[in-house]
Design a protein that fits this description.
Largest sheet: 8 strands, mixed
Radius of gyration: 18 Å
Strand order of the largest sheet: 3-4-2-5-1-6-7-8
CATH class: Alpha Beta
CATH architecture: 3-Layer(aba) Sandwich
Number of strands: 8
CATH superfamily: P-loop containing nucleotide triphosphate hydrolases
Order of helices and strands: EHEHHHEEHEHEHEHHEHHH
Number of helices: 12
Number of domains: 1
Amino acid sequence: MTAQVITVTSGKGGVGKTTAVANLATALAADGRKVVCIDGDIGLRNLDVVMGLENRIVYDIVDVIEGRCKLRQAMIRDKHHPELYLIPAAQTRDKNAVSPSDMIRICNDLRADYDFVVIDSPAGIERGFRNSIAAADRVLVVTNPEVSAVRDADRVIGILEAEEKGNPALILNRLNPVMVKQHDMLSAEDVLDLLAIQLIGIVPEDENVIVGSNRGTPVVLDPKSRAGQAFRNIAKRLQGQDVPFMDLDKGTGLWNRIQKITGRK
């Protein structure tokens, strides 16, 4: 067993990156994978809240790096899946408390015992981002179908390519088919044309995502949620399965075009 390290990042804050990490990690664990999440957003941790683990934190990633605890001591077991763990960020330190080499070392220590290590990168292109991509085997870029978010995502994609981090893949989050039809929101085709990277998933706008995040229960645990299904499908694609994209708006022909763009039809 050698873990695949996946970093989830974005150019712009607030696009749903941390929610994506919690849901993808939970979905992978539900599929029987052994998974560790790492919150790379030193000083502004939120992944613990979205996973409902904020009351269980004793040690954090900086405690591990500075030798105050063993790696295993900082790992918090998830409430829903026994093979899912979180290593939280430190709230009282800044991003300079962690270096890219620190992140590489921690991920290498985890590789032998887990299937996936999923890192929640802070938004932007500063030190925390550099830390979070250092050990990555694969990078997922999250954006919303908004011009400012897509522009920032394009900047991040350029840096990833310059750093030779393979081919990043795109998660298009919070797509509203009704707004797309009314030309009030960029379509998936628009975003793909602008960013020119592989699409790994489209997550529809779904109020259950916010409800789940506030309750510390990722939406993938809700079998009726369309966003939850979208995240489950992305998790299966990360495991190498060929899963067709959901038809979010029957009758427009848009989703047939998306399938063709992504080589699935």
